[in-house]
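Action item from last meeting closed. Structure (1235 res):
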């Protein structure tokens, strides 16, 4: 009986459609195309409406919910106040640590260093001196410290690898710094949101709370004195010019040590410093030619460029002209000083050489002592290189006479420890003033990761790739060189290199932070007349805490907030993408505001529009205001783009170098949902709270604060998941005797201190936790409305209006799944709640065929990758497209899916609350479903190959069965949703039929949007000569070394080649468990072709070896496309010049496109894709940016660079040398290094 009803309804619908079409007196072909589009709309629309139950949910929201407007200026002021409160708490904690450091250092000043009986809680117990460490007991995983095992009862000590942990000055400071533990613990008790607390000593060790075991993989390069928080706090900002001697005597070991000195000096700089490196012999040149006459900001990208220049310094030659080099350095520094450029504070020259011919008294007198020796503007630090015992008097005098420091270096091992001595010297004026302890805030940086690890980790990945290719060659032999296998490897490599668009909130490998730090001074300075910097105290502010404090749920979808520093750099932003392939990008922490907010203009790359430059000036100068700009932005892995009008509101975070900016799309997203009054107090709904969350098919936003305990104390306050945690708090709230209104807000929402620094009286709360009540109430309201949304009975009234709804309800579940291939329905709300229901997972969980490949069996569930609600691509697209058509579903398929058979289509539509008074609306939720692409493919094929009784229609001629006609369904960004050739699914249409795509753009069906990616990473061949490197000057010894290297290489090759079979057999034994490649491709090639693809010996090795690369910062450009907001429902071919016809599929983001293949062949074959390409400049990106640098503001901390008592120190403390008695062993060792 049910089947009969279904047939009757289908017949009724078919007849109705045919009658409508017959009344249309357009040509048969046009009418047929219209029929196809209507049938596709009917099937997709009704399936979506039935599965998602959208109208029911929308009516629920519109029944009670109201709207409230978003005031950008108020939001910006409130968020900046919240962040200021957070920073104030950290600042007060630092002051308490600082006071204890300076107090206990004074009391321990005259005490002797402890003996071997004294034991330390070493953070690296495995590498510590034997029998000197206390065990790190009872380390437990703590969610507050990135799920690191810690012990909050005490601190631990980290000592750099090259610092002896039992040296007297080191162990003495470690001993007295134990007194910090009590202060650390009290700080943590006062502020549960406080992150790591630490004290970094000038001796090299760092005491960190809470205690943890330090990770030693892959290698421990950490030295607190090289970290941004230490460098910036230890001394005021500085301009540094490094002069490196390249005369003929700087050969062998001297050259190696000199390079290490330069690299270490560069590692001690931060973004508020400016630097350049000059190499001199008989002439003086910059190691990076395009930096000529400049001091460049010490960003990671510029430091990297300078290090590459140092790496390619020419072979030593000639006699050095010290006068020219020093004169040029002084003139450059004077230019920056007089024009108020650069750091605008300290200045220094670092001279690296193996000896000087004189002390250059007259030169210093004319350039540095114009106003006497008391007010000299430039300090001079000298680094004497070499094992032999030279005359050190002149070198030391140059440093002492110019308020610098002298170091004699004879081995590579001592470089890092000795070079950092310049920092306490630069800090001496600060220490002598005593009263001023500046607090600094660092830019964004990765917690303990050394910037140099980028190259190392990429090299490891390439080594693994080389291993994979080598094993593949061993297993497949000649098949390795088949074009199809080569194409696969190339495609895999390309995907790896393009994997660099992960937003900051999605990457989980690195703990990105900003730090507050303050210098600690020796209070004995007045008595000893030695300005001793004890070290630096600091604490971290995780970037995730800043995002949490911005209350993204209040801003809503497609609105956001971000933070900018005095340098114009981003601290946090939704489009900040700091990693590629799980590796930190070379310039990840110096991304400028202008590089993430892209103005909608036709300007060339880095020709920034005046509107964004004006906004940037207001922000870095820390003003308050607002500005509207039309921008363009990308999403979905940089495959889609659109434009919008954004209103920027900016507000200063007082007492910091940060400015908070709120960006709103007020035209479309200027309102938010306001829940009904009955949910505000929970009085009427308290008992049923847990009922809203009975099942397990729901998740909440993992990064938003709902409710959280202050501490991970035990099993009662730590949870396996955010959902378990939420249920726990809902259970507490639902109890009748619970005082929900007395629960505390998030800790950083309330000020703990008055403006004069006095502590406010603490409020008493019933829960040692913090909750965002507004977010919790919205979540409970959404949960109430969405509970059972997919299983509730469909409205009978809707059935009568829609015959399709009757048809849907009559179909059994198995018939329904078979017809539409639906696998899952979902809903996500503005409060961060995501619910779903599986359609193919009830009884047999859709048994996977035994012949399915691993990708199908290991395929992740929808919810594993879609828990971020309003930040998900399908959510954003649905809400955005609602502005075009408020009844549209938005469809998408995976890009270039390699496994089409298991591919799913995702469809989503926004649910809005509309005001009855002013017709304004706000996004409340997005509903959607997923279904198998094979079902859509079958539907598309069946519809477009039928005539539907049109007069004069022959399927083989007038439908998509015709050999001269290609049919497609394209989405609003030009990607193929369905095609007769299923392999084309997910591809960009321009990569299939570029000439037709160009026509669609020319006729304004699609609009082209040019996106510049200023955070790109490109991959330069490792052996490629750097365009900015100094030219290589060959000497006779260089040719001898080349000859020896060639002879050794030939001998090794002969040995390997002669025993090749033996090596293969050994490799076979090692890798015998590795499965062979599929050999199905072998039969695709003729015997002649196969013989041409055989390579052996050295030739095979050449093809198997991958091309090693080095990641570098670059700009990339990509042309993206979006469907015009208004296109005609019917676009037909008017002449042979337009070989296509299309129809908009109603209430979707799709178009049905029919291409006349014969006509298309008359046009020139063109193919293009939406993959980013490097922007070519005439020079490197760093050079281009240096020549077109943007303005900045120096930090507002006072510049303290001189003190009248400083000269007394330099009479007795301005450096030290190393004396090594020459021995026969040293002679032979030096000879070996020379060779």
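Sequence:
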């Amino acid at each position: 009986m049910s089947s009969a009803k279904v047939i009757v309804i289908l017949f009724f619908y078919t007849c109705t459609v045919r009658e409508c079409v017959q009344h249309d007196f357009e040509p048969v072909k046009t009418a047929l195309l219209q029929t196809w589009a209507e049938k596709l709309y009917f099937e997709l629309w009704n399936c979506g409406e039935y599965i998602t139950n959208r109208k029911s949910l929308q009516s629920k929201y519109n029944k009670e919910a109201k709207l409230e407007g978003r005031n950008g200026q108020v939001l910006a002021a409130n968020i900046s106040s919240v962040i200021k409160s957070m920073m104030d708490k950290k600042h007060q904690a630092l002051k308490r640590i600082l006071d204890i450091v300076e107090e206990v250092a004074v009391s321990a000043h005259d005490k002797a260093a402890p003996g071997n009986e004294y034991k330390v809680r070493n953070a690296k117990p495995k590498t510590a001196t034997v029998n000197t460490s206390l065990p790190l007991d009872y380390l437990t995983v703590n969610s507050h410290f990135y799920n690191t095992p810690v012990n909050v009862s005490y601190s631990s000590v980290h000592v750099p690898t090259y610092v002896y942990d039992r040296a007297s000055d080191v162990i003495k400071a470690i001993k007295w710094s134990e007194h910090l533990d009590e202060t650390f613990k009290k700080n943590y008790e006062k502020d549960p949101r406080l992150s790591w607390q630490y004290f970094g000593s000038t001796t090299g060790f760092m005491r960190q709370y809470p205690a943890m075991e330090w990770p030693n993989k892959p290698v421990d390069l950490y030295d607190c004195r090289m970290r941004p928080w230490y460098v910036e706090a230890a001394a005021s900002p500085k301009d540094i010019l490094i002069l490196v001697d390249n005369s003929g005597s700087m050969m062998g070991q001297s050259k190696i040590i000199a390079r290490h000195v330069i690299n270490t000096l560069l590692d001690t700089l931060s973004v508020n410093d400016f630097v350049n490196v000059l190499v001199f012999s008989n002439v003086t040149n910059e190691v990076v030619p395009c930096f000529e006459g400049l001091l460049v900001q010490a960003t990671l990208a510029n430091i990297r460029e300078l290090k590459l220049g140092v790496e390619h310094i020419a072979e030593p030659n000639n006699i050095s002209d010290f006068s020219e080099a020093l004169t040029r350095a002084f003139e450059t520094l004077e230019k920056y000083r007089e024009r108020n450029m650069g750091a605008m504070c300290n200045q220094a020259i670092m001279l690296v050489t193996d000896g000087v011919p004189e002390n250059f008294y007259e030169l210093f007198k004319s350039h540095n002592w114009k106003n006497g020796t008391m007010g000299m503007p430039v300090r001079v630090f000298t680094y004497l290189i070499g094992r032999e015992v030279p005359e050190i008097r002149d070198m030391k005098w140059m440093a002492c006479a110019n308020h610098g420091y002298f170091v004699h270096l004879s081995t590579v091992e001592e470089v890092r420890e000795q070079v950092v001595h310049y920092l306490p010297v630069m800090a001496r004026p600060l220490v002598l003033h005593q009263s001023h302890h500046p607090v600094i805030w660092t830019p964004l940086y990765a917690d303990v990761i050394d910037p140099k690890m980028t190259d190392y980790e990429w090299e490891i990945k390439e080594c693994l790739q080389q291993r994979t290719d080598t094993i593949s060659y061993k297993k497949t032999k000649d098949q390795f060189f088949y074009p199809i296998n080569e194409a696969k490897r190339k495609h895999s490599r390309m995907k790896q290199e393009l994997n660099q668009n992960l937003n900051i909130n999605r990457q989980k490998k690195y703990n990105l932070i900003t730090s507050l730090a303050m210098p600690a001074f020796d209070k004995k300075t007045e008595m000893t007349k030695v300005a001793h910097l004890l070290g630096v105290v600091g604490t971290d502010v995780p970037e995730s805490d800043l995002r949490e404090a911005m209350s993204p749920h209040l801003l809503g979808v497609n609105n956001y907030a971000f933070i900018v520093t005095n340098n114009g750099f981003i601290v946090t932003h939704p489009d900040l993408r700091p990693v590629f392939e799980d590796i930190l990008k070379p310039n990840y922490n110096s991304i400028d505001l202008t590089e993430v907010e892209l103005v909608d203009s036709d300007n060339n790359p880095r020709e920034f529009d005046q509107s964004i430059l004006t906004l940037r000036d207001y922000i870095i100068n820390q003003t308050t205001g607002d500005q509207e700009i039309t921008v363009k932005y990308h999403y979905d892995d940089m495959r889609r783009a659109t434009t919008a009008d954004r209103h920027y509101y900016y507000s200063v975070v007082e007492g910091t170098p940060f400015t908070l900016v709120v960006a709103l799309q007020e035209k479309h997203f200027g309102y938010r949902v306001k829940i009904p009054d009955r949910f505000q107090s929970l009085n009427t709904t308290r008992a049923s709270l847990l009922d809203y969350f009975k099942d397990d098919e729901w998740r909440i936003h993992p990064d938003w604060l709902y409710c959280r305990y202050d501490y991970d104390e035990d099993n009662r306050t730590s949870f396996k998941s955010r959902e378990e945690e939420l249920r726990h708090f809902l259970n507490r709230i639902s109890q009748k005797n619970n005082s929900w209104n007395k629960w505390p807000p998030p800790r950083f929402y309330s000020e703990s201190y008055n403006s004069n620094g006095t502590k406010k009286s603490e409020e008493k709360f019933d829960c040692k936790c913090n909750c965002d009540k507004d977010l919790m109430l919205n979540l409970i309201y959404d949960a109430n409305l969405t509970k059972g949304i997919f299983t509730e009975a469909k409205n009978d009234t809707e059935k009568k209006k829609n015959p399709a709804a009757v048809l849907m309800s009559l179909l059994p579940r198995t018939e329904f799944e078979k017809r539409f291939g639906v696998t899952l329905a979902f809903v996500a709300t503005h409060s961060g709640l995501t619910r779903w229901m599986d359609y193919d997972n009830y009884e047999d969980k859709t048994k996977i065929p035994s012949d399915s490949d691993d990708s199908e069996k290991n395929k992740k569930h929808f919810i594993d990758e879609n828990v971020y609600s309003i930040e998900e691509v399908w959510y954003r697209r649905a809400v955005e497209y609602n502005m075009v058509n408020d009844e549209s579903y938005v469809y998408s398929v995976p890009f270039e899916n390699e496994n089409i058979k298991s591919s799913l289509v995702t469809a989503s539509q926004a649910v809005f609350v509309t005001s009855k008074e002013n017709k304004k609306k706000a996004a409340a939720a997005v509903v959607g479903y997923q279904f198998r692409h094979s079902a859509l493919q079958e539907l598309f094929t069946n519809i477009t190959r039928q005539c539907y009784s049109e007069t004069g229609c022959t399927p083989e001629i007038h439908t998509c069965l015709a050999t001269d006609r290609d049919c497609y369904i394209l989405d609003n960004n030009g990607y193929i949703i369905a095609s007769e050739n299923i392999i084309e699914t997910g591809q960009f249409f321009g990569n299939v039929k570029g000439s037709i795509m160009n026509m669609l753009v020319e006729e304004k069906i699609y609009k082209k949007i040019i996106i510049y990616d200023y955070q790109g990473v490109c991959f330069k061949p490792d052996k490629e000569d750097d365009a900015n490197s100094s030219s290589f000057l060959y000497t006779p010894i260089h040719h001898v070394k080349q000859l020896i290297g060639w002879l050794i290489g030939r001998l090794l090759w002969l040995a390997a080649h002669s025993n090749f079979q033996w090596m293969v057999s050994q490799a076979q034994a090692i890798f015998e468990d590795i499965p062979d490649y599929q050999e199905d491709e072998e039969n695709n090639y003729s015997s002649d072709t196969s013989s041409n693809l055989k390579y052996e010996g050295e030739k095979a090795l050449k093809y198997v070896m991958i091309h090693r690369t080095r990641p570098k910062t670059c700009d990339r450009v990509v042309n993206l496309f979006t469907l015009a907001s208004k296109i005609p429902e019917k676009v037909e071919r008017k002449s042979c010049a337009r070989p296509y016809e299309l129809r908009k599929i109603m209430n979707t983001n799709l178009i049905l496109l029919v291409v006349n293949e014969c006509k298309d062949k008359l046009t020139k074959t063109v193919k293009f894709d939406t993959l980013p390409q490097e922007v070519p400049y005439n020079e490197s990106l760093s050079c281009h940016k240096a020549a077109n640098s943007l303005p900045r503001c120096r930090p507002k901390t006072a510049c303290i660079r001189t003190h009248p008592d400083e000269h007394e120190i330099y009479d007795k403390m301005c450096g030290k040398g190393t004396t090594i008695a020459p021995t026969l062993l040293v002679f032979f060792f030096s000879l070996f290094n020379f060779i």
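Note appended to the action item: The radius of gyration is 35 Å.
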